[in-house]
Every structure is written in structure tokens, then in C-alpha cells.
Amino acid sequence: MKYTTKTLAAASAALLSCESTVAFSSNNLSSPRSRSIIGNGINNSGNIQQPQQTSTTLYLGDFFNFGKKEEQETTPPTPEEEAAQTGYVDDEDPIEKIFGIFFGKKEAEPMGMKRFGQERFPEQYPAVLDEWADPVEGDDKEMALLRPLLKNTNLETRNLRLTYDANRDGFDPVTFHSKVDKQGGAIVFCTTRAGIQCGGYNPKGWVGYGEARGSIAAFLYILGGKYAAAGAPAIKLRKVGGPGLAQMDLPESGPSFSPDALVIPLGKDGRVARSKLGSYYERLPDGTNSLFGKDSNVQLRDLKVYHGVYAEGEYIPFTDAEPFALY
Asked: 220: which strand partners?
């Protein structure tokens, strides 16, 4: 059969107008390939050429992002930056995120009130063990020894004053309470006849009403010695078992950190101090259950109490009974 010029021209036009077809690879469903068949017409000899095939690789995500410009990668804002921009914070745990779906995101300052946190209320948290307070101008030599222990307490940056000195005021519970009651939080410092320097921090102070005053921020300490980590001025022992019974505020007794952790009765017991760790305050790292090492009872060389300095008329916290305190 012979091809006429009109027949060849019609065949060429048909090939050039043929539609593209799309074929998907049978062994890679995630990488579809579109193939277009394009006719190249007729060669000089009059024979019809085989159409050329071209292929373009497309991926599944390309179908959803078709026509969209590729977005540049950006660093997500920090919670602080997001809070400054939007007035909301995004540091919620999974439970808070679920509640946020129904009640909205947590505001940084709801109704203009700042949120509860360790920076604003440090004594609502256990004592820090590996951070130390900076020196404060006006501290004497002994205060400078105690100052590092007051990190994250209400006394961290406040000037201190010596309110009770047993060698000066007497080893007597009545005198003790006349000096320390309703003065706010305080740090107790004692030295045993063997030279051990130890004591405790009482965040709630004393009022002499015969109650147990609780605080999760209370702690005991030993200055220097083998238990202090390298470069640390002391070892601190946290309150355990919750905040309850941190200080037994008994008018007939001196400082008593729980019923047994560090008890200095004063009065007829004179210079005696007792210690049994584990029930209310942490034991020492090697399991020793006394601040005094192998001894549970010791004689004291001295006993002192330091309170914060408050300006006239300034509010002093914890100067009354706390019958319903839960912290």
C-alpha cells in the first residue's frame, strides 16, 4: 500500500495532537512517574518515526504542595519569646495541652496577675543542693560562711542579724523564744565540742505556740568536711516525706528540726544536741543517720540563730500560728 502526501500529512498531525498519558511504577508506589509521548513527525524518507518518550519524577507530597512555594526553614520561638508576642505560654505538659483544646492556651499573666513560680516563691520548692548564694555586702565572717547556704530562700539577698547567741544569752528555752519568736525565717548555726559545724534552715521561724510548722524548703547542713562535694562549702540535707513537721515549735524547747533530725532542748539538758536522720530529713550520702557522724548525742560549744533584717514597718512573713498550713 502506497502512502500519498495527504495521507502522510494526516498521520503526522494525528501523532502531534495525541494526549499525554501517566503511568505509575509498579515497584515504587511512592514515586509516581508521568510519561508523555510526543511525536516527532516524519523523516525525509517518508517513514513515520517512533515517538520520543520523556519522564519526570514526582513524589506523593508534590501532589499536595503543587503550586505552593517552598517555605524557608525558621527557628521556632522560645516559650519566653512566644509569651512576649502572644501573651500566652507554650510550656504545658501533655495534660495541660489537652485542657488547652477546651479552655484555650495558658496565659502568661491571667487577669494581670503573675504566675506562681520558683523565682517569685522559692520556698515553695525543696532546697537546692548544687547552687550557692552570692556574698552580700555587710556580712561578717560568720555570716559569710552561712550565706552560700541561703540560695533560693527568702534570706538569700537580705542582710542578716544575730538574734540569739547561747553563750551570750544562755542555754535556756525561755530566753531562746524571747529572742527568736515572730522574727520570720532563720538559720541555726552550732558547733560541737568535736568541731563539727552544722545546723539547719527554718523557713517558718518560731512563734512559741506549741505547733509543728511545716516547710518543704527546710534543710539541714554540715559545713565543709568529707561530705561536701569538691568546691562546695557544705552539704545540705533536704526535708523528706512532705513539708510536715519541719520544725517543732515548742515553747519549752530550743530549735527542733522535726522530732528527731536535729533537736537542741536547752534548759536542763544544757548544751546537749541530738540527731537522727532518715525519717524527716535525708541521711548522709553513705547512709550515716546523724549530723554528728557516729554519735547521736553531742555537747555543743556554741549555738547561734540568724534572722533577716527588716525595715521598720516592713512585712515579716510567718509571724503567727499556721493551723491549716499545707506547705
From this structure: 200, 237
Q: Over its length of 327 residues, how does the chain's per-residue pLDDT go in tens digits?
A: 445 555 545 555 554 454 444 333 444 444 444 444 344 455 555 555 555 555 556 555 555 555 555 555 567 766 666 656 655 555 566 777 777 777 666 666 666 655 555 666 678 899 999 999 999 999 999 999 999 999 999 999 999 999 999 999 999 999 999 999 999 999 999 999 999 999 999 999 999 999 999 999 999 999 999 999 999 999 999 999 999 999 999 999 999 999 999 999 999 999 999 999 999 999 999 999 999 999 999 999 999 999 999 999 999 999 998 876 655
What pTM, to 2 d.p., does this model score? 0.67
Specify whether the CB–CB gap between 217 and 122 falls below 8 A: yes
256, 173 Cβ separation under 8 angstroms? no
